[in-house]
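job 3f2a | input accepted
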Amino acid sequence: MIVGIPKEIKNNENRVSLTPSGTRELVQRGHTVYVQHTAGINSGFTDEDYEKAGAHILPSIEDVYGTAEMIIKVKEPIESEYGLVREGQLVFTYFHFACDQQLTEAMIKSKSVCMAYETVVDRQGALPLLIPMSEVAGRMSVQEGARFLEKPQGGKGILLGGVPGVKPAKVLVLGGGVVGTNAALMAAGLGADVTICDISLPRLRQLNEFMPKNVKTLFSSAHNIEQELATTDLVIGAVLIPGAKAPHLITRPMLKLMKKGSVLVDVAIDQGGCFETSHPTTHAEPTYEVDGIIHYCVANIPGAVPCTSTLALTNATLPYAVKLADMGWEKACETDSGLKKGLNIVNGKVVFPAVAEAFGWKI
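job 3f2a | predicted structure (363 res):
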């Protein structure tokens, strides 16, 4: 199969979808890999690294899309790429269709095959291609939240871990999945007073068993969240419904319960955000203020640490990319029901129920 690796062009997206070692694996299996010039440079990989692995370097993104049968990306195509996606072309990347009708309609129009990382499942029912970036985003959410609590950044001027004789900041984590767990552990490691919420009692019991003593668990309800907000300095939104839009757990009226200079970090922004007042931001302009509350809603948080993120992502995606290249998407999906769940749009038709439901469409 002819595989194409375009350079990511979303704002401050520094990751690349395939490492030179992953390229070598595909080439050794008889596939042809085309990499756009400087696609890997921000992740620490030069064109020469890819050439040594057996890839061919192409000068432009148009050349890559025009040549490849399968495009492997990190983030969804942006508007300037819509017209490059061809009928029958397999695009393997994070899509998050449910919160972007324009993207969804563009991919329907292209009649391509859209395989979404975020809805592929493994034999245990986990999301293996979402987990590594969720781990990165969960840990980074606390780093960024701590930064924007600083007074020069518009925050309260609170140190997350406090100091002897001064109480630490209070952190509320909404969601006990991979993002929330990593956020809670990171915040706890910095010495914060952490509360993690979830609607699953079995999950709360699991968290209670291994979390440090400065992490408390709380059942997630509107009442309980409202009770916490008055004394919370940093909220991490870490809710996920696979392939579907995130629910709004904090409404605009609830912001009035918080003290000015508090920070909300919405890691669920790729799926529409779990705060009513959230809208996507970029690493160039990561925050905005609503009712005195700082909102951090960067849609590609792991893009800020591409050297780590690219390696973690390729570790997870490569086995699936190899399967798709070896067998073609149809046969690969016949043999792997979990990979089949990654199909969101096929030849102009939405095939993933949660995407259709998000826009009130019928499959």
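job 3f2a | The chain is about 35% helix and 15% strand.
job 3f2a | closed
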